[in-house]
């Protein structure tokens, strides 16, 4: 096939929906509306900013200025002149937000109502060589579309974003606690004109069913578009190369669809980060007729098996599990939740490389794509494939009870089939999850989430139909029939650990009994230079009763009765818990908040690693902000790294020495090894102030193991900082342990911070918070 990009500058017309009688490009042309320049891919708010009509919505309280545009409609238009070829012509819109009608030269060619998937329209015979054509797309208001729907008692969403239920677009755009309310509209991904040839490789899917170092078995599913006259004499030729590993196969074909099993001797396996190389084969597939190549395709293949061993419940009497295994080995998951990289999604793709590089630098081996966002594109998954980062993929539903009727089921089924078929070849893709926290919403409403036909039937069937070898979980967290009967979150093998968000070593956190932490976080103030970018100069300080702090807290609603106003106070209270007071200056507030966040997230990760065997992993919330805010992210919207980033980098190293919480007057020193190679080397632990060595020697830990190295006396009343350093294969690593109970002195911790910063993977303590 041949593709012609239609990206670039388009014209954009806009008006209050219903204000004028415009329902066709002819009526648009006859109106007196004047267009502005629009970028494709793009979002209308960015175009309005570029035209000087809107101020920067990321700054101050400008986000609330978008509200009047929620009931507008938007008309994109451009001219094109082409030289058609091939036997079939398609217009492909990779992302359209959201309720759209399409015309070519005034002839309607289709409609769509889903931002999250691509849309294809057959325009064969409508394009003439050398002739100028006009392509028009009308985007209507999602709020008005939502008003036209019927709602039942089996549906529910929070009052602040109830419009999301029937509208298939990123749920956060209706307002969330991590994004401002920005309903948006736009051709947010690329637009292409595709010319299809008579013979094409329409689809290839690879699924590894068995794999070890000696041999791998890969199921290959293929489908071709071929001329009927070529069915006799068809052959499939496939060649894969990864370094010095090679496989080749040629098979005769009886039909344009089929399956076969590929055997690869001594394969180079794909491994998650920390466990081995993320090996990828370059696979060239050729379709031959009577020995001549009539179609070809090149892609990548990661040979690996993946299992998710999980139980429906876990109790003291019947301990359960939630454990990922790759190539037969249990993997300790250490990673982050992934939210969209920008409030306006046309900007997402340009940030992929830097964001995934940050995850790799932190030694994340999994990212969870949260259900309130979008399905990321191939470029994101390609980066994860190469970086050895597994992806937990939620379907795009979050924190609501979505419509159960047949029409919505059909909408969701179509979406799921499109997304699963698109992404299923990526070795990084680990698991499909039905939604984010929707089971909990059912429970909160006094209903059984197992009656939810969307996640128990529609999505489950779609995954089995198109990707039957990959795990599926109905919800995150999933409340099984047995868990529903038990009626306590303590029985869930996978949980989101939020709770009161009090002291990070409170009983809520230390007594949590799950096997996998799907979410947990802690607030951290962004750097001052970042705050000065999104707050007006007079609003940088103080934090109390500051409307701009509240807006970026994040409060997508605004006003004195908003349910989100508490979040700034929560951040301040977390500082108070650790240091026994609220700082008097913005510089000290930032530093204290970043210390609080960093110690909390370090503790959560260490708690998971120290529970290895029982705990299968942790996905902390979250890596990056999608708009400027005070949040749980460890890297702010403008790329500023908080202190937590540096602490997490140290404690997510494959081999890490950690100190457990006090018991019987002592703390235990342990070494965790999340790799497939045994490790050993020297280590030392000393007091940060006196320099006294408290424990030293040589450690040894088996592959994928956890070992105790000794104990250090630690009365609860003693506040001190312990510094840790160890060496593996000639490379040094560092960590620390904050001993004692709060409140700690901020000035004393500031001195400790200078010593912490000098440990391996050092950072500049003097620049923290600036």
UniProtKB/TrEMBL annotation:
Residue spans crossing the bilayer: none
Segments forming domain Beta-mannosidase-like galactose-binding: 36-189
Catalyzed reactions per annotation: Hydrolysis of terminal, non-reducing beta-D-mannose residues in beta-D-mannosides
Xref: SUPFAM superfamilies: (Trans)glycosidases (SSF51445), beta-Galactosidase/glucuronidase domain (SSF49303), Galactose-binding domain-like (SSF49785)
Source species, domain of life: Bacteria
Keywords: Glycosidase, Hydrolase
Glycoside hydrolase family 2 immunoglobulin-like beta-sandwich domain mapped to chain residues: 257-304
Annotated EC: 3.2.1.25
Keyword Transport tagged: no
InterPro entries: Beta-gal/glucu_dom_sf, Beta-mannosidase-like_N2, Beta-mannosidase_GH2, Galactose-bd-like_sf, GH, Ig-like_fold, Ig-like_GH2
Presence of the UniProt keyword Ribosomal protein in the record: no
PANTHER family: BETA-MANNOSIDASE
Family, as annotated: Belongs to the glycosyl hydrolase 2 family.
Designated name of the protein: beta-mannosidase
Native species: Cohnella silvisoli
